[in-house]
Amino acid sequence: MDDSANWWRDAVVYEVYVRSFADADGNGTGDLAGLRSRLGYLAELGVDAVWTTPWYRSPMVDGGYDVEDHRSVDPLFGADPDATALVTEAHRLGLRVLIDVVPNHTSDRHRWFRAALAAGPGSPERARYHFRPGRGAHGELPPTDWRSVFGGPAWTRVRDGEWYLHLFAPEQPDLDWDHAEVRAEFEDLLRFWFSRGVDGVRIDVAHGLIKDRSFPDLGADGDEPPPGRHPHRDLDGVHDVYRSWRRIAGEFGPDRVFVAEAWVDAPDRLARYLRPDELHTAFNFDFLRCAWDAAALREVIDRTLGALRAVGAPATWVLSNHDVVRHVTRFGRRSTGELDLALGRRRARAALLLMLALPGGAYLYQGEELGLEEVEDLPEAVLADPTWERSGRTRRGRDGCRVPLPWSGTAPPFGFTPDGVPPWLPQPARWRALTARAQAADPGSMLRLYRAALATRRAHPALGDGTLTWLPARDGVLSFAREPGFGCVVNLSAEPYELPADARVLLASAPPDGNRVPPDAAVWLAGS
Question: pTM for this structure?
Answer without folding.
Answer: 0.97
